[in-house]
Each structure stands twice: as structure tokens, then as C-alpha cells.
Amino acid sequence: MSTSDPERPGFVLPLLLLAGFRSLIDDLHTELARQGHPDLRPAHGFVLQAVGVDGTTASELGHRLGVSKQAAGKTVDRLVALGYLERADDPADARRKLVRMTEKGVDGLRRSAVLFDALRERWVTRLGADRVAALEDDLRAVTPPDSFRLDVPGWFGT
Predict the structure, then answer these.
(1) Could you give the CA distance from residue 37 to residue 29 in angstroms, rounded to a whole number?
(2) Which of 9, 61, 80, 100 has its CB surrounded by the most CB atoms within 10 Å?
(3) In a domain, 4, yes or no
(4) Boundaries of each HTH marR-type domain copy (predicted)?
């Protein structure tokens, strides 16, 4: 006996979750472009987060993102060309190169954080604070505690 609601087939839930995510990300990038970051793409946010404040190597970056060292290197090359990342000598090991965020990269992440707060407030205005909080609580209840991972680019096969 199936308990599924024919009006709400199971495949719709992940599509709605993805659509909500896409809506937030599209709105974020529209505003980031308006604020001086027209070249930032959704995958770049994962890369900047994975590089972090201390920087990292291309190999470690690939591991964090769930992609090959070569794929990470290609993305780093693009973000270096755009001015968001730089390569620098590792002070702990002269044989290694670190990938670090530039001020432009830090600015993009800072603006993203502020914009995500504003986008959440839009949802609060539309749905109500209690419903948004309940949605967040419900998603926390059905996802593992370590569900925030930066390997989404690798998971999507990019």
C-alpha cells in the first residue's frame, strides 16, 4: 500500500528544493553583478569558500571540491584571471604554491553573505518569519549534521 499523495508525487520535492536554491542563487548573482562582481558564477562561490582565509594548494582544493586537481587548477586559472584568487609561494614549503583569495575575492564573499541575509528576509516577507524558520528547522531535521559540504561541483559532475 502506497502512502504517496498523487497530488504530490515524490519527484516534485527535490525539484522544488532545487528551484528554491536556484532562485536564491540567481537573485544573488544578479545583485553581485550590480555591485561590481559580474563575472562571479555559482561554482565560484564554492571555490572561494574552499580556498578559505588561509589559502590552500590546488590538490587540496580539488579534494575539498570533489574534483580532480586538473579541474581545480582550471577553475583557479579562471579566478586568477578575473582577480579573485592569486598564487603565492607557501612560506612553510618553498616547493608548494598556495592559492589565496585577493581582496576582490574577499569582497565577493562578504557581499554574498550580506545578500544572502537580504534574500532570506525577502522570503520572510513573502512567507512569514515562522514559516521560514520552520522550513529551516525541517530541513535541518532531515539532513545529516555535516550536510554543508563544498564538494557540490564534483557531485554535479563539473
Answers:
(1) 8
(2) 61
(3) no
(4) 1-144
Contacts of 100 (CB under 8 A, 6+ apart): 51, 55, 85, 86, 87, 88
User: Tell me, what DSSP letter sits at residue 84?
Assistant: S
The residue range of the domain holding 151 is 12-155
pLDDT tens by residue, 124-151: 999 999 999 999 999 999 988 776 666 5
* Any domain includes 36: yes
Cell triple for residue 34? 550590480
CATH number, domain of 119, equals 1.10.10.10
24 in Cβ contact with 119 (< 8 Å): yes
How many domains, in total, are found in the chain?
1
Nearest-CA neighbor of 98 among 71, 114, 80, 116?
80
Side chain identity at residue 20, one-letter code: G
Q: Look up the pTM and report it.
A: 0.84
